[in-house]
Amino acid sequence: MAISCDQNDLAGLAKCFDCLSPVTQQQIQTYLLALIAGTSTDPNTLALAAKCFDCLPPATLQQVQVFLLCQIATALGV
Question: How many CB atoms lie within 10 A of CB 25?
Fold first, then answer.
């Protein structure tokens, strides 16, 4: 399903993102990057892959995000 990139639509979708803790925000961002990178969308697989996000400090989550961004860029030929 396509997502609108219109700034008003994005602002509406993200309006409560600031309500979440910084760690939860990082977890969501990492989850979305993992999906874009092509990981399984099976709920059990995703739950297993994400079960230790709470164990990771924010800096480590950022490292995981950089790795996933690199994987996405490589797959896109960027």
Answer: 15
Output the pTM of the full model: 0.52
What's the structural domain count of the chain? 1
Rounded CA-CA distance 23/63 in Å is 14
Domain holding 67, by residue range, is: 20-76
Is 2 inside any structural domain?
Answer: no
pLDDT by residue, tens only, the chain of 78 residues: 566 767 787 777 777 777 888 777 777 777 777 777 777 656 677 667 666 777 777 788 788 878 878 878 888 776
Q: What are phi and psi for residue 19, nearest 5 degrees?
A: -70, -20
> Long-range pairs for 29-35 at CB < 8 Å and ≥24 separation?
29/61, 29/65, 30/61, 30/64, 30/65, 30/68, 33/65, 33/68, 33/69, 33/72, 34/68
